[in-house]
Amino acid sequence: MTGGDPIHRGRDAFARRRWADAWAHLSGARANLGPDDLEMLATAAYLTGRDDDSADAWTCALAGHAAAGQPDRAAFCGFRAGLVYLHRGEAARAGGWFGRARRLLDAAGQDGVARGYLLVPEALRGLAAGDVEAARRLFGEFTAVADRFGDRNAMAMARLGTGQALIAGGDTGAGLALLDEVMVAIGAGEVSPIDVGIAYCAAVLACQHAFDLRRAQEWTAALGRWCAGQPDLVPYRGQCLVHRAEVMQWRGDWPDALREATHACRHLERQPASGPALALLGDLHRLRGSFGAAEAAYRDAGRLGHEPQPGLALLRLAQGRVSDAYAAIRRVLCETGLPALRARVLPAYVEIALSAGETPTAGTAVEELGRIAAAGPTPLLTALAGRARGHLLLATGDATGALPCLRESWRYWHNLTVPYEAARTRVLIGRSCAALGDADSAAMELDAARRVFRQLGAAPDLAGLETRAPGGLTRRETEVLRLVAAGLTNRGIAAELFLSERTVARHVANIFGKLGVANRSAATAYAYRHDLAGPDTHNYPVRPGP
């Protein structure tokens, strides 16, 4: 075979990861391709965004292997064809190909590595449905098959799935250890080009679920380098942009994060992965105070079947629609079962519940978040759990107990280089100092937070610092305090504000805690000292958050 032979040139281009050239050469010689070369053609087609051509080439490769008496290789090609459609969101067509691959193996009575791969769709369905035990069992069976046949690529993918299932179930340490093994296999060149992209994206997502910011950042950078080294690559670039934007958001690079998220939405248009990209775009708009743009992004994500929570509930909170925010976040938490996913909802639940005066339910959420953080400790999750506990203690009047939790949380955020969350924690530290009568320390903490919010462009948080009523009271609490100062009982306040007496009692307890007072007389005196007893106190703007 000469150097000018298109098949030879196609193989050479494939070996050098020049996917467009490999596609061009191999497709031009398609009539003369054997099943192995057809697999190369299918891979090159997929990696250059030609999904239909890829599925067609996998089909032809399946037929070639079957004719050559290689049912395991044929079934693997059927699995790959199904995977093309699964990634496009066409579950029915994907299921048809997986079924055909199983029948090939059953008809031949052969046990091969393809049987392990064919367990993956069912395992992924188990993960999506929250059935972690079923997913772990199926990925465990895949691992046994891969090890038995010594297939390095299958070993890596089986361990990837097992790691995902362990993290989803709360066994973070064991899950991350398996993902580290997968990254080693990628570095050793043991993983196929299609599966490298799948592994990177799945591993980064799992790290985000585990709140492991360091690994997420490291592997996102590795995914970016891998994509950059293959200019023809079409899949994975959009997911890479989403992951990059998420890391940038944590690091405080909001303008760059917004640019990357917008680019990702365009790149992933009409693809299943565009839902998370839109939700991230909504989060960035919300943090910057562009509430209309945030609303539109969250709704677009929802239309694509992606849950836009807790971002949408936090948007409602920022808009002052506390009841709507609480109803939404309560519904989401009720529907969320896996510990890793509940941990992503619980911090927002605590913040919203405290703003709604639902202190007991906030306390329950704080305890659960603490248990999850203790079971799979990472610095980021520990920081979230500590801040939630400090916020609860402050809201219930224990500013002394709140300060150690909040200061430890701030140290974690500071060491992680997460400026926004560090600044939000300093706001709570400042409020705690104010409740203890340390006005100078409170002012320093709030000034430091103010500078960060201004640098980031966190307009809602900045406005909240500038307009919050004395004592850190929300608008509703200020209204309740005004009526307490007017001499109304809880029943009278409930009638005035159309609230239940139980809710008023919670607001009164929260007010006592924030102001550091023990009774209604002391609260009334505070209200008169700070000009909160007049008829205009209800004009304080809503800022329910910290």
Can you offer a commentary on this structure?
The chain is an all-alpha fold. It folds into 5 domains: 6-245, Alpha Horseshoe (Serine Threonine Protein Phosphatase 5, Tetratricopeptide repeat), CATH 1.25.40.10; 246-306, Serine Threonine Protein Phosphatase 5, Tetratricopeptide repeat (Alpha Horseshoe), CATH 1.25.40; 309-372; 390-467, no CATH class; 475-546, Arc Repressor Mutant, subunit A. Helices cover 77% and strands 0% of the residues. It contains 30 helices and no strands. α16 (274-288) packs antiparallel against α17 (291-303) and α27 (475-485) crosses α30. The longest helix is centred in the first third of the chain and has 18 residues, at 91-108. The protein is elongated and about 90 Å long. It starts with 5 loop residues before the first helix and ends in a 17-residue tail after the last helix. The relative contact order is 0.05.
Give the secondary structure arrangement, pairings included.
Blueprint: H1 6-15, H2 19-28, H3 35-47, H4 51-67, H5 71-87, H6 91-108, H7 113-117, H8 120-129, H9 132-149, H10 152-168, H11 172-187, H12 193-209, H13 213-228, H14 237-251, H15 254-267, H16 274-288, H17 291-303, H18 311-318, H19 322-335, H20 339-355, H21 359-375, H22 379-395, H23 399-416, H24 419-435, H25 439-456, H26 459-467, H27 475-485, H28 490-497, H29 501-515, H30 520-529
Keywords: DNA-binding, Transcription, Transcription regulation
Domain HTH luxR-type: 466-531
Pfam families: GerE (PF00196)
